[in-house]
Each structure stands twice: as structure tokens, then as C-alpha cells.
Write a structure and sequence with these properties.
The protein is mostly helical. 54% of the residues lie in helices and 0% in strands. The longest helix is centred in the first third of the chain and has 25 residues. It starts with 5 loop residues before the first helix and ends in a 17-residue tail after the last helix.
């Protein structure tokens, strides 16, 4: 039985990049964290992830309808922690 060579590992790393990098960019453009693209490397889970991603509501599209940025729409409650300012009580 033969073992994996450096070339085998190089091909696997290349294929992983070819799959993950576009998935990462698509997820970010849709308003999700790019790390979700790592699910594309897991057999069977990748098929479920693609199907789920195709049919869920994309925060970026919802944000475009109300005039928010995708980053704002993807955060909890529509605003990020940096945007929350304590009120000073004065006008």
C-alpha cells in the first residue's frame, strides 16, 4: 500500500482553497460570516449547507431593502456593538 506524498497533500490543499475561497466570498457578500464556507470541506454536510444557504433569508438582501449595510444586517438586532452608544440624557 502506498502512502500520501507531498504532491497528494499539495493537490488536496489546492482543492480546499478552490472550494473554500469562493464560498467564503459568497457568504460574506450574502451578509454571513465567511467561516461558514469551511462546512464545504465536510462530506455530506457540504450538500446540506449549500441547500440551506440557497433557501434561507440573506441578511445582505434584507439590508438592501431597508438601506442598511450587510454588516449591520448580519449583527444581532441590526446593529453592531460598536454602533451602540450610551445615551447621555441630554439633548
Amino acid at each position: 500500500m502506498q502512502s500520501f506524498s507531498v504532491w497528494h497533500l499539495a493537490v488536496l490543499a489546492f482543492l480546499a482553497l478552490v472550494i473554500v475561497v469562493p464560498g467564503w466570498r459568497i457568504a460574506e457578500k450574502a451578509g454571513y460570516r465567511g467561516a461558514w464556507a469551511l462546512l464545504l470541506l465536510v462530506p455530506v454536510v457540504n450538500l446540506l449547507a449549500v441547500w440551506a444557504f440557497a433557501f434561507v433569508r440573506w441578511p445582505a438582501i434584507s439590508a438592501a431593502k431597508v438601506g442598511m449595510s450587510p454588516r449591520q444586517a448580519g449583527s444581532v438586532g441590526g446593529c453592531s456593538s460598536q454602533e451602540i452608544q450610551p445615551s447621555t440624557g441630554g439633548a
